[in-house]
């Protein structure tokens, strides 16, 4: 093996966890499964409920529908104005729950201030929950000790696991430090990785952690999902560690004055880590691929059994 150890000349570069290429391979596989469904008269359909005009959220939703077109999944869009009320949003969820063309859907987060997000998520039909964020599905994530994935998992945690598996990386017995405790990434990947089939040892750190470096410096794997640009600097990383850059923050570039997206991982980490997921091009494309997988699997589960 070369690449994973320092060569002493200071020119070490971490190996790349290539999310773009991996997501492309997964989309190819999903296109075949979509074709098999079509042969049985079923066209999977992804619904999105988008509230307001945040440019970031609009871009994400556009990207999701573009991905759908690539693999043959139908698109159903429900767009509501920023002024939509709780009742309007709940009505959009009810509409997607009832639409037979929609086999899976997401409510794009975050919802506008004042909206009760948990109440909206509770209303999704768990069988159509493409984000795996309905309490029933989060409960299944916790309860399932072993066995096949038969309920949707949240897209980013699933994407991270898939990215590692497809690069031949095993987590069993490893020390994983997760930075960030959000529902969509940090807390859920922590719960998932402690399940017997993954068998990792997990430390879940967050903004209240007194000495973050003390934890990360001993980690075999760091999942950086704090949403704080550049929080993981090279001195926080054990040489050879596996580092996943999940965070996305909009920052104003000091030199150009332009807004750009910044990850949680500082560029210097590439000199220390053994493996690193680029950002962009790492976890983001995998998240989108797993959304497609969740939609295809929901349609597969809904098929009548072959006799
Ligand atoms: N209900 C819900 N489900 C989500 O899955 C969800 C959400 N709400 N709200 C926002 C976050 C964010 N998120 C991203 C997905 C893909 C990229 C992605 O593909 N990024 C590209 C770069 C894209 C660019 O340059 O703008 C990359 O990393 O290579 C990024 C961010 C999903 N989210």
Automatic annotation (TrEMBL):
CDD domains: NAD_bind_m-THF_DH_Cyclohyd. Keywords: Amino-acid biosynthesis, Histidine biosynthesis, Hydrolase, Methionine biosynthesis, Multifunctional enzyme, NADP, One-carbon metabolism, Oxidoreductase, Purine biosynthesis. InterPro entries: Aminoacid_DH-like_N_sf, NAD(P)-bd_dom_sf, THF_DH/CycHdrlase, THF_DH/CycHdrlase_cat_dom, THF_DH/CycHdrlase_NAD-bd_dom. GO terms for molecular function: methenyltetrahydrofolate cyclohydrolase activity; methylenetetrahydrofolate dehydrogenase (NADP+) activity. It comes from the Bacteria. It catalyses: (6R)-5,10-methylene-5,6,7,8-tetrahydrofolate + NADP(+) = (6R)-5,10-methenyltetrahydrofolate + NADPH; (6R)-5,10-methenyltetrahydrofolate + H2O = (6R)-10-formyltetrahydrofolate + H(+). This is Bifunctional protein FolD. SUPFAM superfamilies: Aminoacid dehydrogenase-like, N-terminal domain, NAD(P)-binding Rossmann-fold domains. Residues 154-302 form the Tetrahydrofolate dehydrogenase/cyclohydrolase NAD(P)-binding domain. The keyword RNA-binding does not apply. Homodimer. GO terms for biological process: L-histidine biosynthetic process; methionine biosynthetic process; purine nucleotide biosynthetic process; tetrahydrofolate interconversion. Its EC number is 1.5.1.5, 3.5.4.9. NCBIfam families: PRK14193.1. Pathway: One-carbon metabolism; tetrahydrofolate interconversion. Residues 17-131 form the Tetrahydrofolate dehydrogenase/cyclohydrolase catalytic domain. Belongs to the tetrahydrofolate dehydrogenase/cyclohydrolase family. NADP(+) binds at residues 180-182, 248. It holds the Pfam family THF_DHG_CYH. Transmembrane segments: none annotated.
């Amino acid at each position: 093996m070369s690449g994973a150890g320092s060569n002493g000349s200071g020119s070490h570069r971490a190996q790349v966890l290539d999310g773009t290429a991996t997501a492309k391979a997964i989309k190819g596989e999903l296109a075949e499964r979509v074709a098999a469904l079509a042969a049985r008269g079923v066209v999977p359909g992804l619904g999105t409920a988008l509230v307001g005009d945040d440019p970031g959220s609009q871009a994400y939703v556009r990207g999701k529908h573009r991905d759908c077109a690539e693999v043959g999944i139908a698109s159903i869009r429900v767009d509501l104005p920023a002024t939509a009320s709780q009742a309007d949003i709940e009505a959009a969820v009810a509409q997607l729950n009832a639409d037979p063309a929609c086999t899976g859907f997401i409510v794009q987060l975050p919802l506008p201030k004042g909206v009760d997000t948990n109440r909206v998520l509770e209303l999704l039909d768990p069988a159509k929950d493409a984000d795996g964020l309905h309490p029933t599905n989060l409960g299944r994530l916790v309860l399932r000790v072993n066995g096949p994935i038969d309920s949707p998992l949240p897209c980013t945690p699933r994407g991270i696991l898939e990215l590692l598996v497809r690069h031949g990386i095993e987590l069993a017995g490893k020390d994983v430090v997760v930075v960030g405790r959000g529902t969509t990434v940090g807390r859920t990947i922590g719960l998932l990785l402690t399940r017997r089939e993954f068998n990792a040892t997990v430390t879940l750190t967050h903004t209240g952690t007194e000495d973050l470096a003390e934890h990360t410096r001993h980690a075999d794997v760091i999942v950086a999902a704090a949403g704080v640009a550049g929080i993981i600097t090279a001195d926080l990383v054990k040489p050879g560690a596996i580092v996943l850059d999940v965070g996305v923050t909009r920052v104003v570039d000091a030199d150009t004055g332009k807004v750009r997206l910044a990850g949680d991982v500082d560029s210097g980490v590439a000199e220390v880590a053994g493996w690193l997921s680029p950002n962009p091009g790492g976890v983001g494309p995998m998240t989108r691929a797993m959304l497609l997988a969740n939609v295809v699997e929901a349609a597969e589960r809904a098929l009548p059994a072959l006799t």
